[in-house]
């Protein structure tokens, strides 16, 4: 097991701070008045806010880099230990960066990725098509052409780039909150909440190469650009530049993460809901639909026409929305009941078209790469139990379970969740009222009069932020791994609400306490008090965290990797668990039978077959399976064979037993049609060196954690 132990001794263009509301600060001729000295104040505010944004972003980058160094003593450990610290799929992704660095030339490195025969034995696959590793390719080329080889090791160039992207991430969150509220104080509060809630907002310091750590900064930039795009009074040139920024950010986000299509589908749903309720400009929403599809199609081309992208729901959905809108041209005309009926029909039409188009595309492409995701979702939300091995593998992982309740207690300790709930409630009520008014078909004069009377307004950018946070909140509640998409935006949304003139104006008018001066005082004093509270409460803890020194400690895995490099040929093929084999590829360069990048049907079936080493199968069966994949060595892990981390029914051996129709080990119920196996568990029985096993397998290495067996090569 990989552990850490105590270190041994001796070893944006922006609005003014006081952003006026659109209704009360627009003259009859449409021009926005500027108070004396307003231009100078704007420039000063933007300059100070920009400096603070960059400073906070850089400090966050240094902070997570220091935590990583202190946790592993990364600068002091050996290269093999550094590579082992990139656990599971992180090691697989980093191995392609290392492969490109070590290639004789850039051309040979690219050829090795396009015609790869070491990631999956007896198969040649295109890594650039199957995986989102263009960032590793770009970074390796950059490292080769820049004159930095003498000063900076490849691994540091890689991790510093990821930590640098954290600065981009925090700056994007800061700018988004600033744009929404009109004051950079809101951005500072969002950044502080992001840092003090680090456990729930990021995991970059211990999963550096993970795809989400590349993608989420670009997603945050995209949201900031969309927030600016949805503002009123943009000049045509500003709008075009903003659309270009949205496209670039969308493209980079899509290029760096295989789950991009699901995140953008949720984003498209947010746009669809708001467009249907007439809360966003239709023309801008249309451009955003087109940008999403264009970005994905460009990524599809770069990934050698990856069929999983073409068969994604997001492309089918966006096309369906555009078609349905063309068919229903009078969607936003008529009275309340008429519009409601049209809206229901519109939603049904879009849903049916999406399913038909998606099914048609998948039928033509014979696409089955993402079927495991839909099996998982079907089982997760109670649409029937499943014995499918792949679906159960996800269901039993904590990361794909419901969001733990202790998450809310941690978020509440920084006041984030309390403020978020307060702002969410207010803006949800406002959104419901405005949506009802929009659907009622009132003319604009009456609408403005009512809005002024009831003081209920919601700008398009705030409306988008509201629906965005609600939808991604639902995603996070259902799947813990996706919480990082929600919690980071939670920081933005809560800080915006706390610094928003509109929010405090609404609250004070409801309490009959409204004055302009009082609104301004509360708008600035409450965030400042909150910032002071956070600083005094969490600064000592952050300092203690930064002073805590540990070191990487995993001698069993280090011993295994060193043995493989020293005692096996370079062409040897290794079988074992997905997580371990990713490390084997990175540390030794040996060929694998399977790996953790699970978005391929053939690989999923192959992995299930390889995992029979932990099932109740005969030695002859296991030997035949392993040899069919060209296996020379198989690695057995005691932590899997005798697993106690999961409860009965979720241990890997239990999932295999159920999938094979066998009764599970231990006390407890079994489904009535499960039967006892004719054979004992392979990973346990092989250690007894019985003749039926030794004729196929010879133990060549063992330590407290791993057992390596060499397969006999029978004629």
UniProtKB/TrEMBL annotation:
Region listing for Disordered, in residue ranges: 1-34
GO MF entries: mannosyltransferase activity
UniProtKB keywords: Glycosyltransferase, Membrane, Transferase, Transmembrane, Transmembrane helix
Matching InterPro entries: Dpy-19/Dpy-19-like, Dpy19L3
Domain of life: Eukaryota
Transmembrane segments: 43-65, 214-230, 242-259, 265-283, 295-323, 343-361, 415-436, 462-480
Protein's name according to its UniProt entry: D19L3 mannosyltransferase
């Amino acid at each position: 097991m990989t552990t850490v132990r105590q270190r041994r001794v001796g070893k944006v263009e922006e609005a003014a701070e006081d952003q006026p509301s659109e209704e009360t600060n627009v003259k009859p001729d449409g021009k926005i008045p500027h108070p004396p000295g307003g231009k100078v104040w704007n420039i000063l505010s933007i300059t100070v806010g920009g400096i603070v944004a960059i400073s906070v972003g850089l400090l966050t980058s240094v902070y997570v880099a220091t935590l990583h160094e202190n946790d592993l003593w990364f600068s002091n450990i050996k290269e093999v230990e550094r590579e082992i610290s990139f656990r599971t799929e992180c090691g697989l992704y980093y191995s392609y960066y290392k492969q490109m660095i070590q290639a004789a030339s850039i051309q040979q490195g690219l050829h090795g990725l396009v015609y790869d025969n070491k990631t999956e034995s007896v198969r040649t696959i295109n890594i650039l098509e199957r995986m989102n590793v263009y960032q590793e390719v770009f970074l390796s080329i950059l490292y080769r052409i820049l004159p930095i080889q003498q000063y900076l090791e490849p691994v540091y160039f890689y991790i510093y780039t990821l930590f640098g992207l954290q600065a981009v991430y925090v700056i994007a969150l800061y700018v988004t909150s600033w744009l929404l509220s009109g004051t950079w104080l809101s951005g500072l509060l969002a950044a502080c909440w992001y840092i003090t809630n680090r456990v729930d907002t990021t995991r970059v310091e211990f999963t550096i190469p993970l795809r989400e750590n590349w993608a989420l900064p670009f997603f945050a930039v995209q949201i900031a650009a969309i927030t600016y795009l949805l503002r009123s009074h943009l000049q045509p040139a500003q709008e075009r530049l903003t659309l270009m920024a949205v496209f670039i950010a969308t493209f980079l986000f899509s290029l760096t993460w295989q789950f991009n299509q699901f995140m953008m589908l949720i984003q498209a749903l947010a746009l669809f809901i708001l467009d249907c309720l007439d809360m966003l400009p239709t023309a801008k929403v249309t451009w955003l639909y087109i940008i999403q599809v264009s970005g994905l199609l460009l990524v599809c081309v770069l990934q050698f026409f990856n069929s999983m992208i073409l068969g994604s729901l997001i492309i089918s959905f966006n096309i369906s929305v555009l078609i349905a809108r063309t068919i229903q041209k009078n969607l936003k005309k008529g009275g309340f009941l008429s519009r409601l009926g049209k809206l229901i029909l519109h939603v049904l039409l879009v849903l049916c078209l999406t399913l038909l188009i998606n099914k048609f595309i998948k039928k033509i492409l014979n696409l089955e790469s993402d079927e495991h995701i839909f099996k998982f979702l079907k089982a997760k939300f109670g649409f029937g139990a499943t014995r499918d091995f792949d679906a159960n593998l996800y269901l039993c992982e904590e990361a794909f379970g419901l969001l733990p309740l202790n998450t809310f207690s941690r978020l509440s300790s920084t006041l984030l969740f309390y403020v978020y709930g307060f702002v969410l409630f207010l803006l949800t009520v406002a959104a419901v009222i405005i949506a009802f008014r929009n659907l009622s078909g009132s003319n604009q004069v009456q609408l403005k009069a009512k809005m002024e009377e009831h003081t209920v307004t919601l700008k398009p950018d705030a409306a988008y932020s509201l629906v965005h946070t609600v939808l991604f909140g639902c995603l996070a509640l259902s799947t813990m791994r996706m919480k990082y998409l929600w919690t980071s935006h939670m920081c933005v949304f809560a800080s915006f609400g706390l610094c928003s003139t509109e929010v405090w104006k609404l609250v004070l008018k409801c309490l009959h306490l409204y004055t302009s001066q009082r609104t301004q005082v509360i708008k600035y004093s409450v965030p400042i008090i909150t910032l002071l509270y956070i600083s005094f409460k969490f600064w000592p803890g952050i300092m203690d965290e930064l002073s805590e020194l540990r070191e990487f400690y995993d001698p069993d895995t280090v011993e295994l990797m060193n043995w493989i490099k020293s005692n096996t040929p370079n062409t040897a093929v290794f079988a074992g668990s997905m997580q371990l084999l990713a490390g084997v590829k990175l540390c030794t360069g040996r060929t694998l039978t399977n790996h953790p990048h699970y978005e391929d049907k053939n690989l999923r079936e192959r992995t299930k077959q390889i995992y029979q080493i932990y099932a109740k199968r005969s030695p002859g069966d296991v030997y035949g399976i392993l040899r069919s994949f060209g296996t020379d060595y198989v690695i057995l892990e005691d932590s899997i064979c005798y697993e106690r981390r999961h409860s009965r029914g979720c241990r890997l051996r239990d999932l295999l037993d159920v999938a094979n129709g066998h009764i599970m080990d231990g006390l407890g119920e079994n489904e009535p049609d499960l039967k006892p196996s004719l054979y004992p568990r392979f990973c346990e029985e092989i250690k007894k060196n019985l003749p039926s096993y030794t004729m196929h397998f010879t133990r060549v290495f063992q330590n407290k954690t791993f057992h390596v067996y060499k397969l006999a090569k029978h004629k």
